[in-house]
Amino acid sequence: MGIFFLLPWDPLRYIEEKLEALQIEMQELNVMRNDLLRWVSKEEKIGPQSLPEVKDWLLRVEKIEVDTNLLLKESVSKIQRLSTYGFCSLNCISTYMYSKEVAKEVATMLRNVETLRWERIFEFMAKRASPKEEKKRLAFQPVVSQEMLLESICSRIMEENIGTLGLYGKSGIGKTTLLTQIKNKLTEEVYKFYHVIFVGAVSKDIESVQDEIGKMLDLFYTRNWRGKSREEKATTIYEVLNRTRFGLLLDDIPKDLYLEEIGVPYPSRENGCKVIFTTHDRGAYKWVDHEVEVTRLSSQESWQFFEERVGETTLASHPDIPKLARVIAEKCVGLPMFLCIIGDAMAGKKTIKEWRDAVHVLVSSTAKISGSEEVFTISKFYYEYLPVGERSCFLYCALFPEYGNISRQDLVDSWIGEGMVSDETKGYEMIGDLVRMGFLTENKEEYGYGIKMEEMSRKMALAITSDVERCEENFVVRGGNIIKEMPEVKDWNLITKMSVTCTQIENISAYPQCSKLTTLILIGNKNLKCISDDFFRRMERLVVLNLSFNETLSELPETVSSLVSLQFLNLSWTSIKRLPLGLKELKRLIHLDLEHTLELKDVEVIASLLKLKVLRLYRSVSLDFSLMKDIQLLKSLKELSLTVEEGATLEGLLSIRWLAVCVRRLHLDEITITDGGILLLNAALNLRELTIYNRHIPAINVGRRNRSNMISRMSTCFGNIEEIPKLWNIRKVSLSECNYLSDLTWLLSAPSLRYLSVTRCFSINEIISKEKAINQLGDTNKQPFQNLTELILDGLPKLESIYWAPLPLPVVEYILIRDCPKLKKLPFNSETAKGDHVEIKLPGGSWINRVEWEDNSTAQRFSNLNYRSFLPH
């Protein structure tokens, strides 16, 4: 008679789970490697070979990949043999011993993989000092005349009789760069401003300007802000600014702007406030006290600037190159923006033919835009150097609203829908290329990183796309508050893409025949209520339809069924109540965005959209078991965002592995978690954003839920070898009114976190618990928040600790701590937040006097805070 062993856990299942975890981690590591290889391929075309550190990292990844594949192959064979015996036999001893052996080996490999990922090899890219990156640094080193102008302007700002000052000059002259440098100066203590507010690329829409100011004054995120009228917002802004001394900087303001419309008190000798702005037009504002012209660089300054951008190595490549370089520099007519652009374009050109071709293109690239022909010529020159695919992506950017941010996500989604790029990675790479080339600029004022299109780039794109004879694409782009009706078009059959944004249009009743129209963008038309049944009838080739931010649009006509080619539909931030049954006919639809559609109730047609790859329901209709059943029919689904209000539904979602892996954004609202009250996030490995508004979750963990609480049993059998899985993709976490949570130690498993907001959580006493960190990870050597850019802690009455030791916070840009009366020690030292553009808001008064600083140097560094807004040096 044999001896039987009954183990309290399933060892073979445990082995499979460990191996699966290793596979997932290796997949993520391979994504990093592929990104790095693409970068190396690009950089080696324009400069010396890769850094030794990069090559070494790639070799180590290759080695661990070989070892992993070998282990997986051997384990599959071994598991198959062991499973044939069952678990109630002498073979249990072999199974147990093998599972223990595999667990140790996998744990070692996981640690090695994690080490490779934590090395942050991509920081070596910055050290690489490629020509483009080197030139980017040079752009912030103004020439002598610009330095003198900056000093002169700052001196005038200090004068009591100057409250408003305007900078005027041509496009590309450097006004925005100068205004940014002035902003950095105004944050210094000598100016004694309580608020320094910068609004870039000012919109003609007053409410957009008010929203930007509202963000800087912490008004935008209050619950009633979005419901206010323009006049009410102006009153609120005025009440805040009228009580303090502020500096307001406005970039590229329209002619008809009046400060009182925004809610900004006029600066005076008494209040000591200042308003500085940039514009193209001199003398257009009667309320300005002083104007300064921003002039071109001299010929000698232009050459010195251009010479630095191109680099000595390139200029020495051929005896004739310097002469041709001087010709090109002269063609830039003293405009810093285009000296940068052309200099960067030519930095890697080392043959005389390339330089002769460049001069030819520059001389022949002429087109007329009123008052800006020379600037347009430079832009057109650079456009000619773009590959065909990048040209199309660049032109597409002009379809988005002229003022305000373009969402990177929306842009990439649209490109994918149009077939311009194959996936997200290539889309974000394309944006990076266009930013480096100067066609787009980054705007990091909001989480998610918006981008903006340069004014002249936009004008050039529209000029190119309106040239019917020379361009395959023919755009119609209209926008602004003055527009109250859909634009008249002579021949709709010539139009390939149309954009009508931020207008006063209330009804669309046209019946156009659009045989070539593939893209229709109707964004931000706040008064749009009705689209007629006939409007969509003859748009059979339409591929992309974007109706986002039309706040009063509550329904779509059933004739959307005519859009048989549609692949991309965005209805986010609308008041849509139900999806028309006609959507069932859209058999090619792969992307449906319904985020922030709070009125939406009926989505039964989703079950018919079997080709959907992207479905977004974040802050929309709540997931229930019926909707989950419909979503499970979408076998092509790759990305999912959801709102969940029931604990059982959430557990059901996370138990369906392929569906859980699709989740990118998750909003939990008033949800109660059962099974011990712990929210386990391990199944949602690709989660990017988590928002919880909830009073019934006492704990959040990242661990593997197994049968019979297998985690604790494994730790007993194998010791401390359980690897806590990492949520590598999570970027944003917002928690509000989670009144049972005592800590957020689980964030140690989110190394890529960029944004953390914790508000009105009345039981939290520490953000990261040292005791729990040791129990979960076994050590505390890895510091959290290495990628954090924003930290908001507001209304936490029991909070006593953020972290037990100082944190470097190397990339942080914004910190707000408010209403945390028991927080006496901050995790800061003299090296914390050592960036050039960091804003920290702390309460003053008795609270700041009780703060215990790490040492004297930290106290000295933070001693000059005005405790509302400052910029450390």
UniProtKB/TrEMBL annotation:
Mention one GO biological process in which this protein takes part, according to its record. defense response
Organism for this UniProt entry: Cardamine amara subsp. amara
Presence of the UniProt keyword Repeat in the record: yes
Q: Which InterPro entries match?
A: AAA+_ATPase (IPR003593), Apaf_helical (IPR042197), LRR_dom_sf (IPR032675), LRR_R13L4/SHOC2-like (IPR055414), NB-ARC (IPR002182), P-loop_NTPase (IPR027417), Plant_NBS-LRR (IPR050905), WH-like_DNA-bd_sf (IPR036388)
User: Where would I find the AAA+ ATPase domain in this sequence?
Assistant: 161-298
The record's comment on protein family reads: Belongs to the disease resistance NB-LRR family.
Q: Indicate what this protein is called per its UniProt record.
A: Disease resistance protein
In terms of SMART domains, this protein maps to: AAA
Give a yes or no for keyword Nucleotide-binding in this entry: yes
Cite a single GO MF annotation.
Answer: ATP binding
The protein's superkingdom reads Eukaryota
**What keywords are assigned to this protein?**
ATP-binding, Leucine-rich repeat, Nucleotide-binding, Plant defense, Repeat
The record ties this protein, via Pfam families, to: LRR_14 (PF23598), NB-ARC (PF00931)
